[in-house]
Amino acid sequence: MFYREAGQFRTTYEADGQILPIRQDRIALLATLAVAAVAVPFMASPYMLSAILIPFLIFALAALGLNILTGYAGQLSLGTAAFMAVGAFASWNFVARVPGMPMLLAFVLGGLCAALVGIAFGLPSLRIRGFYLAASTLATQFFVIWCLTKISWLTGGSASGVITAQRIEIMGYAFDTPQRKYVLVLLVVALMALLAKNLVRSNVGRSWMAVRDMDVAAEVIGIRLMRTKLLAFAVSSFYCGVAGALYAFAYLGTVEPEAYSLDLSFRILFMIIIGGVGSILGSFLGAAFIVLLPVFLNIAAHGLALPTSVASNLELMVFGALIIFFLIVEPHGLARLWQIGKEKLRLWPFPH
Amino acid sequence: MKLLQSIVLGAVLAGAIAPAFAQEQFVALPSYRVGPYASGGSGFYGGIIDYFSLVNAAGGINGVKVAWQECETEYNPSRGVECYERLKTQRGGATLVEPLSTSIAYGILDRIPQDKIPMTMLGYGRSDAANGKVFPYVFPLISSYWSQAAAMVKYLADKNGGSLKGKKIVHLYHDSAFGKEPLPVLEALAKQQGFELVKIPVAPPGSEQQAQWLQIRQARPDHVILWGWGVMNSVAIKTAQRNGFPREKILGVWWAGSEEDTVPSGDAAKGYTAMSFNTPGNYPVMDEIRAKLYKTGKGNLSDQARIGSVYHMRGVTAGILFVEAMRTAQEKFGKGKPVTGEQLRWGLEHLNIDAARQKAIGAANMFPTVKTSCEDHEGSGAVKVQQWDGKKWVAITPNWIVGDRALVKKLIDESSNRYAAEKNIKPACMP
């Protein structure tokens, strides 16, 4: 009834090529963004902001990075957390060692360092693919963490290897409360999500998808495999690097190798599997699912007055069962469910 | 939907009842009872809760009951920060937090002074937090890693007739923040006392150590310090046996000195020594916990065989320290009403649990005398050495050992002042 495109005519190429062709979608997205940027910082409690929304946005950004590589370019990776670690440690080092380094520039430089590491560890993708590539990106995970624990220069000579992230200060304005941190993270993530959305709709994105679907055919039609694959690694690692820097500076407040364990790589992989492989929206839905569900289950178990040991095991069981359920019922993830819902809404109330 | 409704309803009800909790002293327990470190977490938090239950059963602290809430962290820093944020505003606000994890403690270190919630780090974490002028809200109570390392060297020196000159000591450590923490002290002492320090890291979690023990056998050290955690400990003990390395020469850190480390190693662990800040044995307070809680089904541990185990007793010790701090704070700020986080911070800074007080609690000589001040948030620094006799831990040093306090103090001041300079903190005692 409300969700119909009757009467919306597209008469120019620009109108036809916009990100959201249906007016209702555009309004909904703008409204969501407005609420997220204006209302949420005032309405949400500090707990909501600093423990739920900030990690949700940061994980969404990391999932976006992995989705570019795995979902769009078809290169499996298990090194996401390592790229995040490179971004975090590089940003920390830039701020600590270069006097007067602007924070945002440090994040960008951290992302660029991660992109360089991504390119280096993306090189095997030119020869191997699929599970073999996943195993070789696993090397990134171990190598980077090993480097960070071994080379004390990277951690500023700290005895324990754990360093405190500097205060985020941009042009004399300190981002030290949950509200301010949230707004900063939201801005960065929204901007980068928009960029990613446009990137995958462009020439580059189409060549990624061509490589993903069949790389031999892509090569035959003139796509340069090496450049395309390495670009996917670079862009993906850049996103992960920025996410890692935000994770350290805006969420944890510390920079340490153990926070970027293999476990985190897997969690981000689950996010894109559950959210939807090859979908920008899916990265956000998946991140929300993985961040919120354990918290929700934990609170529910507490509300039902279960003993803590039972509650935490129950949490693991429900979580595992839900993942299996989603994989069986909707292998394309939550984003696909949303898409189906939208299609049904467009036909409603007269389905055929 | 039903579930959601009942949760929303529950939350609303909890909000409505909240004022009724006003006579409670609320403690946040970001605990872990699943995952690779569950054995430590469940015993430790079980001990804290058992002691709180015991105090509440006796009417609380001057009538104020202790309230607590757990939140599962799985020892994961990210979940730990979420738990801390969730718990800190519950039931009118948390007044104390104990995460039992170095990474989680680091993650919330900057938040606690802002929230005015004191954090204890019982036997772990940042050793330099003992300087209360820089870390007013952090309390590495009883003994930090640096005090432990200094005491280890003192014990080994005593064992070798007072001097370690020309000896060789291997530091076999968990390659993480936890394993690297004692290095400044060990290095300084190696230079001072003239022994050779060989550092051998083990990649976490430490389930494979063949190469390391071959290296140790080649180095032929006089002693091996085992700075391990979780699964690493029993693997080390078993691998040492397989390589023919005598267990008597291995000295474990206190996180490598529990039943969970030795029982899985079987006979290989017999004769193995480890540090402790608790004296193993039985105490009136433990009997009371057995009689008043476990007999009536109110105990926290599901496995009754673990009552009085190393981790459980360490939790009871933590509970005693927390309750004593609450009592101390009430004496200053008014008896019979709960104290705020700031007031409890004062209580933690003015603890004085001497032998007489320990006896009154029913825990005589269970842990060293703890007397804190603004300059010394540790309050003791004394430790014991215990040995596994094949069935239980036995203390082999009748007296408490204290290492080179002056050296530790110097390192604490250097390191904490560096932190203060980085963070623009003006070191000062809080009133």
Automatic annotation (TrEMBL), chain A:
InterPro entries: ABC_transp_permease (IPR001851), LivM-like (IPR043428). Keywords: Cell membrane, Membrane, Transmembrane, Transmembrane helix. It comes from the Bacteria. It is found in: Cell membrane. The chain crosses the membrane at residues 27-44, 50-69, 76-95, 101-123, 130-153, 182-200, 230-252, 264-297, 304-329. GO terms for molecular function: branched-chain amino acid transmembrane transporter activity. It is a multi-pass membrane protein. GO terms for cellular component: plasma membrane. Pfam families: BPD_transp_2. This is Branched-chain amino acid ABC transporter permease.
From TrEMBL, chain B:
It comes from Pseudoduganella dura. Belongs to the leucine-binding protein family. It holds the Pfam family Peripla_BP_6. Transmembrane segments: none annotated. Residues 1-22 form the signal peptide. It comes from the Bacteria. This is ABC transporter substrate-binding protein. Keywords: Signal. SUPFAM superfamilies: Periplasmic binding protein-like I (SSF53822). Residues 27-390 form the Leucine-binding protein domain.
